[in-house]
Amino acid sequence: MRNAKTPASGTADGVDYHWSPVIAVALSTFTVVSSEMMPVGLLTPISDTLSVSDGVTGLSLTITGLIAAAVSPFVPALIGRRDRKRVLVAFMTLLSLANALTAVAPGFPVLAFARTVLGISMGVVWGLAAGLGPRLADGPRTAPATTIIFSGVSIASVLGVPLGTYIAAFLGWRAAFWALALLGMVVVAVLVRTLPALPVHERSRLDGIVDALRNRGVAAGLAITALVVFGHFTGYTYVRPVLETDAGLSAGLIAVCLLVYGLAGVVGNFTLGPLAGRYPKGAVASALAGVVTAALLLPFAVAGAVTVLLVLVVWGVSYGGVSVSTQTWVRTADPARIEASAALWAGVFNASIALGAFAGGLVIDNAGDRAVMFSAGSITLVGLIVAVASRPRPTVPCPSRSRRERPAAADCAG
Fold first, then answer.
1. Residue 295 pLDDT > 70, yes or no?
2. Domain 20-394 in CATH 1.20.1250.20
3. Can you give the pTM of this predicted structure?
């Protein structure tokens, strides 16, 4: 395999179009998201073992997300011109160690420390992986490559969280985190074997973050991402208590529900991903509309397993397309700063996970299950309104012209 020739812009010229590097990065996102989300499927047993409330256990997601959010935007500047392949390998190794520490945690303080280390690893991996599609594939292959990379997110819901729930049912929740630690080392080996060198010839600057934020399309995309992810995790983090208490489902049936949700997420990723490549606004609006509908309907669908599953299918299909469609929106708005805008997007995404899990914990502990779902739907609805009112049009610098000849502000950067 020949290495990609990687100019400072972050795009790839003359890249080898084998798909194995893209799949390797998808395995990384799968492992990262499985590690981050595993407490969702194991919330009750972890709470029981560590003698803390569901809301406190939910903070394990908040801690991880906040740390990842703080790290992600600064990843390009912090790692400088270091080969991106080497950085990914190093931090995937650290992620495996964090999962191993989680598996042996005797109490919540150690668990919190392990999740902090996980957050640092996630921040770096997310900050790089989100923008690697255009570097590993070019032209018409960029959208499929990005879709495959983000398929790791939705497939993690199919295989990661549900499988972890099954493992925990038979071997305990600690075994699920040992499995994640082992999986992480397997992914490290795959990255070493398949990923080409990914050097950068110019050091990224911190002011690149400000430049990206000044782009109106990027700012709108980040706001939409923040609202939908915040809303989703306000509700989804606590979906197990809702299904246990309101729907009266057993642990085994809840695992089936999470599996169905995850399968629907894969469908959503591969349906909305290609659509986002052509119509990013339509894909984003469709995804958010589905999340709003499902979150608001779930409290009324708890009379039986069938209605619960139908709502979770809608939720899964919709949220399965959120990552790829919102990232495509941001990339479309600023194709000249892919790595910087992708790192910002990853930071916003993870901060929203953290805040959503935290907000949901407050709501469910103080107002109950229905209130947490209504809150999730309402927050996401605001994101849908922003998406409908905005557009991811690329912005370019305005030429020096008279005011009368100057292009519309929506078409100009700054």
1. yes
2. yes
3. 0.75
